[in-house]
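Title: Prediction job returns without error message
Component: structure pipeline
Severity: low
Priority: P3
Assignee: unassigned

Description:
Job completed but the reporter wants confirmation the result is attached to the right record. Sequence as submitted:
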Amino acid sequence: HLAALAAAGVRSVPVRSRLRVGILTTGSELVTDGGPAAFGQIFDANGVALAALVEEAGAVVSSREASDDDPATFGRLLDAAVAVSDLVITSGGISQGAYEVVREVLEPRGAVVTTVAMQPGGPQATAVVDGVPVFCFPGNPVSTQVSFVVFLRGPLREAAGLPPVAPSSTRLAEP
């Protein structure tokens, strides 16, 4: 396209910058360095999945970190992500268990934490931190990915100037 514009004598065109999205997964059980997982640990699948979904939606990953369940650590990583992002997505730490670090840090900052009537999906939150929207999804990998597709894929694609993803369907062989 650039060559065609240049051949037509067009010297400038309006463009959109890609939205910068920070990703912050939570859980002291997460393994992020590719090393072996000890008993009770799991690999950070949500960080990988969200990064791929963000890129597919036309945005760029501005930061990707994993926090343990310490509120001070999560708060510091959240503030760092907010500083370099147009939007931040968190995964995990939002339910009603003993170590819900996202809820603990964001509720005093005005986050709206609620249960969304969808499965998978469940508990979610939204907040604005220093003018940056923060979307908080559950820690279950399927819930995280479904929540992203339902709530963020369309708006991110629209912001990037990409067409909506057409729904797909198929006919069942049997009812």
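Comment from assignee: result matches the submitted record. The domain at 17-159 is CATH 3.40.980.10 (Molybdenum Cofactor Biosythetic Enzyme; Chain A).
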